[in-house]
C-alpha cells in the first residue's frame, strides 16, 4: 500500500486543530456515544517504554512503537522544510488515527491546556468543539464547516484524544467513521491503547515534537515468530508502502 500525500509546510503545534481538517472526512455532524475513561500506565496504555521495553511485536518509529495489527497501514508525514517525520497516520477499515508525541514537563500535564487551545482554534474557523468523557478519557469532538463532495454544506469532523505520560504527551486525532461511530472507532482505539512512547533521556523543551523515524527496512515489521506462521488468529504486521516522497 502506498503512502498518501499530504500538504504540510510546517509542523503542527501541539494544540493546533489544523491537522483535524487534513485527517477527518467531510460529513454531517453526529453525536458521539462513547463512554468511559482511560489513563496511561502499566495496566492500560498508551505505555511508556519503561513499562513495555521489548520491541517484539511492534513497528519501531523512533519515539513511537506501533503494535502489529491485521489490516493496519502506516503513513508517515514529512515536513518539507526540515525533512523530518512529524506525524504518523494509521489507516484501518476506512478510518484514520494521526499520532504525534511531544516532550512534557516532569511535574505538569498538558492535555487540559491543549484542549482549550484546540477549542479556540476550531471556534476561529466557525466550528464547534464539544468536550466529552469517552473511552480514552476526556476528549474533544470537533466540527469545522466544510463543503462535502456533492457540493452540499457539511462538517469536517475530528475526535481529539490526549494522554499525559511521564515527561511526554501523546495526541491522537481520529478521522473518518472512527471520529463519530464508537463501533467503528473500537479497532483504532485498541491500536492507540497499545502505542509505546519512547521519550528518551535528552533534555527537551516542553511541547517539542519527539523524533519519529522511518522503519529500519522496507519489509513489513515486525516479523512474526516462525511458530505463529499460518495461524490466522495471529495479527499480521502493519503494511508498509514505498518510501515517502516529500510532502509539499
TrEMBL record:
Matches recorded under Pfam families: DUF3710
Residue spans of biased composition, Basic and acidic residues class: 41-54
Residue span of region Disordered: 1-54, 207-248
Positions with biased composition (Low complexity): 15-31
UniProt cross-references to InterPro entries, sorted A to Z: DUF3710
Protein name: DUF3710 domain-containing protein
Lineage: Bacteria, Bacillati, Actinomycetota, Actinomycetes, Micrococcales
Amino acid at each position: 500500500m502506498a503512502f498518501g500525500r499530504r500538504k504540510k509546510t510546517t509542523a503542527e503545534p501541539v494544540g493546533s486543530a489544523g491537522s483535524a481538517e487534513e485527517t477527518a472526512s467531510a460529513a454531517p455532524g453526529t453525536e458521539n456515544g462513547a463512554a468511559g475513561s482511560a489513563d496511561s500506565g502499566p495496566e492500560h496504555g498508551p505505555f511508556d517504554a519503561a513499562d513495555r521495553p521489548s520491541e517484539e511485536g511492534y513497528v519501531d518509529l523512533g519515539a513511537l512503537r506501533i503494535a502489529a495489527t491485521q489490516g493496519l497501514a502506516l503513513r508517515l508525514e514529512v515536513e518539507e522544510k526540515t525533512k523530518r517525520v512529524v506525524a504518523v497516520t494509521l489507516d484501518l477499515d476506512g478510518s484514520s488515527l494521526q499520532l504525534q508525541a511531544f516532550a512534557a514537563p516532569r511535574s505538569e500535564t498538558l492535555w487540559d491546556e491543549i484542549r482549550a487551545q484546540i477549542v479556540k482554534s476550531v471556534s476561529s474557523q466557525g466550528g464547534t468543539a464539544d468536550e466529552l468523557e469517552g473511552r480514552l478519557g476526556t476528549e474533544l469532538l470537533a466540527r469545522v464547516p466544510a463543503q462535502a463532495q456533492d457540493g452540499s454544506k457539511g462538517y469536517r469532523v475530528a475526535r481529539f484524544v490526549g494522554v499525559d505520560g511521564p515527561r511526554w504527551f501523546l495526541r491522537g486525532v481520529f478521522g473518518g467513521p472512527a471520529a463519530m461511530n464508537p463501533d467503528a472507532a473500537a479497532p483504532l482505539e485498541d491500536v492507540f491503547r497499545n502505542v509505546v512512547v519512547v521519550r528518551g533521556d535528552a533534555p527537551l523543551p516542553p511541547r517539542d515534537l519527539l523524533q519519529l523515524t522511518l522503519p529500519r527496512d522496507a519489509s513489513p515489521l515486525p516479523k512474526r515468530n516462525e511458530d505463529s506462521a499460518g495461524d490466522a488468529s495471529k495479527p499480521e504486521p502493519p503494511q508498509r508502502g514505498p518510501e515517502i516522497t516529500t510532502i509539499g
